[in-house]
Amino acid sequence: MSAAPAYGEDKGGSAGPGEPEYGHDPASGGIFSSDYKRHDDLKEMLDTNKDSLKLEAMKRIVAMIARGKNASDLFPAVVKNVACKNIEVKKLVYVYLVRYAEEQQDLALLSISTFQRGLKMLRMMVASNVNQLKPWVESPG
């Protein structure tokens, strides 16, 4: 007579010794490894030239933070996107920075030049918009 495994003992598909366990995390958008490479897909998305992929990655990261997951290892990849032209990505990057800048003070200090580049781009965008509006605002004299 064979005994059936107790509830919770047989999860099926468990990894062997030395192999990473896999699970499903809705915030990461797919299957991830529980080892240190679990955020590689998000890092790749943040490093692309496509704003849509960057936006999707930032949404996933902010969702992870909202659920209490640790996303501090993504700090360098996220900070690089401060200078992104997409305003939605930029807003989510600032949400991330508000959460992790205090924990990652050294990296935050090293990334000041990236912030300055982002502000310079914003300043140029505002200046170009002001120049376009000047003829409409100026009153006939």
TrEMBL record:
Gene3D superfamilies in the record: Leucine-rich Repeat Variant
Top-level taxon of the source organism: Eukaryota
Membrane topology (UniProt): Peripheral membrane protein
Main location class: membrane
Any Gene Ontology CC annotation: endomembrane system
Segments of this protein annotated with the region Disordered: 1-35
Alphabetically ordered keywords of this record: Membrane, Protein transport, Transport
Localization annotation: Endomembrane system
InterPro entries: AP_beta, ARM-like, ARM-type_fold, Clathrin/coatomer_adapt-like_N
Pfam family, any one: Adaptin_N
GO biological process: intracellular protein transport; vesicle-mediated transport
Clathrin/coatomer adaptor adaptin-like N-terminal domain: residues covered: 37-120
Entry similarity comment: Belongs to the adaptor complexes large subunit family.
Protein name: Adaptor related protein complex 3 subunit beta 2
Source organism of the structure: Canis lupus familiaris (Dog)
